[in-house]
Write a structure and sequence with these properties.
Length: 198
């Protein structure tokens, strides 16, 4: 007489491995937007999360958020878009962001055709935020990237936030309007990545 079939519960580690495999397979076909930033006081990190929120609002796109010291060359190569964030240091990027940009692979132009965008935080109005955004975008152009700003005339070079002057004091959170600009930048980059059919 045949024995009844019994089913043993799947072991937890096997189930986890299958879940990871399925997730990786599903996500493998999706383009990735890499957001990389340096933040000393937390302001640029707050903007980075706003940019991430915008990217995440677009279905069909993965987002990877990393500090400059944690980002690898492979992260750059795997991404279809790279968004770099920096605090403003004397109307320029911070030293860690400068070092990060200088470490990008150049030989053979492996970043050519990828989308690039920028966001910054500054200590006051007209204290170098647009110059710093342009410094990031100019570096991206050297690598053959396709650079873009935000979705309207008020964010032509990317997104920025101001902290530390009479209108936006340090003891208050970043103004929601600045976070909205960061989110809009992330959304536009993600939507563009999808349109370009990577």
């Amino acid at each position: 007489m045949p024995q009844p079939i019994t089913y043993k519960p799947m072991k937890r580690n096997l189930f986890t491995a299958i879940l990871v495999l399925l997730t990786t397979t599903v996500l493998a076909g999706q383009p990735t937007v890499l957001i990389v930033y340096h933040s000393k006081t937390g302001n640029t990190e707050t903007m980075a999360h706003a940019v991430k929120k915008g990217v995440s609002s677009v279905d069909g796109v993965q987002v990877l958020l990393k500090k400059v010291e944690d980002a690898s060359t492979q992260d750059l190569l795997d991404a279809q878009a790279i968004i770099v964030g920096s605090p403003v240091y004397n109307a320029n990027v911070s030293p860690p962001v400068s070092e990060f940009l200088s470490s990008w692979p150049f030989e053979g132009q492996p970043l050519k055709g990828k989308i690039g965008a920028a966001f910054v935080t500054a200590g006051g109005v007209s204290s170098g935020e647009e110059l710093t955004q342009m410094n990031i975008l100019q570096s991206m152009l050297i690598f053959g990237m396709l650079v873009m700003g935000g979705p309207d005339w008020s964010t032509p070079f990317g997104a920025s936030a101001i902290r530390g002057d009479d209108f936006f004091p340090y003891d208050e959170p970043i103004h929601p309007g600045f976070l909205d600009k960061g989110e809009a930048l992330g959304r536009r980059v993600a939507e563009t990545v999808l349109k370009m059919n990577y």
